[in-house]
Amino acid sequence: MARMDVTVRGAGIFGLSCAWACVQRGARTRIVDPFGVGAGASGGIVGALAPHVPENWNDKKAFQLDSLLMAERFWAGVEAVSGMAPGYGRTGRLQPLADDHAVALARGREATAARLWQGHADWQVIAATGEGVEPTSPSGLLIRDTLSARIHPGQACAALAAALRARGAEIATEAPDEGAVIWATGAAGLEEMSRQTGQMVGVAVKGQAALLDFDAPGAPQVFAGGVHIVPHADGTVAIGSTSERSFEGLATDAHLDAVIAAARAALPLLADARVIARWAGLRPRARSRAPMLGQWPGRQGHFIANGGFKIGFGMAPKIAEVMADLVLEGRDAIPEGFRAEALF
């Protein structure tokens, strides 16, 4: 049996996406995860692919823009091969503006978005209509951006896994390292690196979210009251999520009750929507808060793709590309702020 060119450890969004990019370049690839596909934070339910504010531009924001613009083609390719819908849709986002100060900031960002997003998407201040899936706005005005998109995290991971298998990749719960090894092991991986190095490389942050029975599949997502509200294509709306550095256990609790209440206050249409699922999981936050990518210092042939935290699904298409560049072709296009060696 032929040896693998690449072993990917971790079957979350980073691991699966990196494996997909490698397979598309002809590499024999195996994904190994003892807990299965999307078992960690990538098996969540929110899926808000939302951009950073278009100002104070830096490598992280430019990288994210590239990735968000790549997403439609990336997920269409996955769906075409797998025959499974990942729940992707570039449906945009609405945010209420609280007062005159918020309105002035938002209007200033209209111009910077036009320049920085280069016509690929809009950031505009619009008048609230009071109709449809639209948040309550004290000023009567909203921000609408057309760059934000949604994905169904669990479905997306399942679709990626099916596409990988269809292209000949292996997905196993246990297997030896063969070829180059990409470590995409999420929160547990960051904690293990911290133990090995004796310094804080990254931490696990608990997140909680809920799924409501409300059918608005083509509606924009909403960010209001400190929560993301994401209508999915399957007739549900996801709301979340918390960021808890201090926690005991992985059960959902009063923190999620507060998120549900805030979402209903921000979007009154959800007042009577039934809660059909509650979710809690651990998300990987690297010390830098940016994705952690590149060569594993001191371990030849080993690479790291971790630390997605709240932006993992949005960053995944571009991360997959640059990791395949590095692992298969030796081309390093990783932004300075993302470099793994800086955290060791």
Strand count, sense and barrel status of the largest sheet are:
8 strands, mixed
The CATH superfamily of one domain bears the name: FAD/NAD(P)-binding domain
Question: Number of helical runs?
Answer: 7
Mean pLDDT: 96
Number of strands: 16
Rounded Rg? 20 Å
User: How do the SSEs run, as a string of H and E?
Assistant: EHEEHEHEEEHEEHEEEEHEEEH
Beta content comes to 15-25%
Shape annotation: globular
Instruction: Provide the structure class.
Output: alpha/beta
For the record, give the distance between the C-alpha atoms at the N and C termini, rounded to a whole number.
37 Å
Give the strand order, joined by hyphens, for the main sheet. 5-6-4-11-12-13-10-14
Q: What's the architecture of one domain in CATH terms? A: 3-Layer(bba) Sandwich
Low-pLDDT runs: none
Portion in helices: 25-40%
Q: Write the CATH fold name of one domain.
A: FAD/NAD(P)-binding domain
Q: Supply the CATH class of one domain.
A: Alpha Beta
Write the layout of secondary structure elements.
Layout: E1 6-9, H1 13-24, E2 29-32, E3 48-49, H2 59-82, E4 93-96, H3 100-116, E5 123-127, E6 141-145, E7 149-150, H4 153-166, E8 170-172, E9 180-183, H5 186-197, E10 202-213, E11 221-224, E12 227-231, E13 236-240, H6 254-266, E14 274-286, E15 292-295, E16 302-306, H7 312-329
Helix pairs in contact: 1-4, 1-7, 2-4, 2-7
Descriptive notes:
Pfam families: DAO. This is FAD-binding oxidoreductase. One of its GO terms (cellular component) is cytoplasm. Residues 5-326 form the FAD dependent oxidoreductase domain. Keywords: Oxidoreductase. The protein has a domain at 6-90 and 149-199 and 287-343: FAD/NAD(P)-binding domain, CATH 3.50.50. Strand 12 and strand 13 form a beta hairpin. Helices cover 32% and strands 24% of the residues. With 344 residues, the protein is an alpha/beta fold. The protein has helices spanning 13-24, 59-82, 100-116, 153-166, 186-197, 254-266, 312-329, and strands at residues 6-9, 29-32, 48-49, 93-96, 123-127, 141-145, 149-150, 170-172, 180-183, 202-213, 221-224, 227-231, 236-240, 274-286, 292-295, 302-306. The protein has an eight-stranded mixed β-sheet with strand order 5-6-4-11-12-13-10-14. Strands 8-2-1-9-16-15 form a six-stranded mixed β-sheet, with helices on both faces. Helix 1 packs parallel to helix 4 (153-166), helix 2 crosses helix 4 (153-166) and helix 2 packs across helix 7 (312-329). It is built from seven helices and 16 strands.
